[in-house]
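Give me the fold.
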Amino acid sequence: MGKFQLSVLCLAITLVLYYANKKLYRRFHMLPLMPLVFTPLLLVLMLIVAHISYQNYMGESRWLMWLLGPATIAFAVPVYDNLHVIKRHWMSLTAGVVTATVVAVTSSVWLARLFTLSEVIQRSLAVRSITTPFALAAAKPIGAQPELVALFVVITGVFGMAVGDVLFLRLSIRAGMAKGAGFGAASHGAGTARSYEIGPEEGVVASLVMMLSGVVMVVGAPLIGWLMF
């Protein structure tokens, strides 16, 4: 089988697994069965068993990565429909976004240095708390590796979504806006999806915080690279 045919086959398998996984998750609704968790595990297992290289897999699947951009921008629609929430809480949202960005970057880099991880891992971890399209855009100015950035972003999103509800319960956080802001700032797309499951206000706030955090990170990436590396 040629490389092109193999890449097309991998793309078809990816789509079939994803939609089958969505149906499975709707029925059982368990965290390990989430499409963002279970589908990548199945794909990795497939690549290992079939001895398919990452380059061959990504050959015709790159447009799926490209679709992350429009998908992220689509979160702006419910934000626009709920501008009154933003106007009412713009000051606290702004302060929260700036604080979350600073804490995410500094804690990631300092912990990586504490465990003496390589510099490329440190740079890649610095942008892990924003959604993938923004993270990849911020990766270049600070010298991060795109493949590692994408991996760390996915892990951060899934982990934040998994433990978010427990943390809110432990910290006695009940306000919907606070939950949405926390999910959007810490676990970006995955957290935003979880926020919409909780309620519309939580989802709107998570969408806004996720996008603002991404913009702040992309704009501030050159400064971050200069200060921390």
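Residues 76-228 form one domain.
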